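Limitations
The structure tokens in this dataset are predictions for the assembled complex, not deposited experimental models. Users should treat interface geometry with appropriate caution, especially where small molecules or nucleic acid strands are included. An illustrative entry is reproduced here so readers can see what is and is not provided.
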Amino acid sequence: AQRVTQPEKLLSVFKGAPVELKCNYSYSGSPELFWYVQYSRQRLQLLLRHISRESIKGFTADLNKGETSFHLKKPFAQEEDSAMYYCALKAGGTSYGKLTFGQGTILTVHP
Amino acid sequence: DTAVSQTPKYLVTQMGNDKSIKCEQNLGHDTMYWYKQDSKKFLKIMFSYNNKELIINETVPNRFSPKSPDKAHLNLHINSLELGDSAVYFCASSKGTLVYSPLHFGNGTRLTVT
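Predicted assembly:
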């Protein structure tokens, strides 16, 4: 069975500081990893996904299969980055597209 | 406006009542999901339908009954509501069940059972 762990429930940084939201997963196959973000009073939305290897809003995430991690990073945090961030894993085969979420990390960026 | 839309946004009801939450997507997706977000913000899948057929049922009490009249709709009916059912329920959709296909979420329905 797949599992996603986000060890930090709360993360606070100051504006301009680097930020890293940790995500570790367990799955024996080759999963697809995603980061979703939920801003205050908004819907849960896709931030980025491993397969795209892109940078969205200055965020990047690298899949480290050796450490089974998919940490989300941004070199200079902005106040508008304050939100709830979920790491999620999608397995193939009989998972039928199911996303397994981590517990979420609330990021607060102080001015 | 292409999106996943849920109604109602808020639902307050008493224990023992029966209620429904509706979900519609106009993204042309063929797979739809219901997720539950509990008080600790933990998101967990409840059901998934692919082309109107149930493909995921994650040990949800049988008081919860999803219904998919067509590929664009997935409604959730809850019988005999209990206090523990209070949560935010999210509908989502995706194009197929392939591993690379991201989910698109609705705004959520906040259910409060008193």
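Some entries come with short summary sentences. For this one: The interface with chain A takes residues 4, 31, 33, 40-45, 48, 50, 55-56, 90, 92, 94, 96-108 of chain B (CB under 8 Å).
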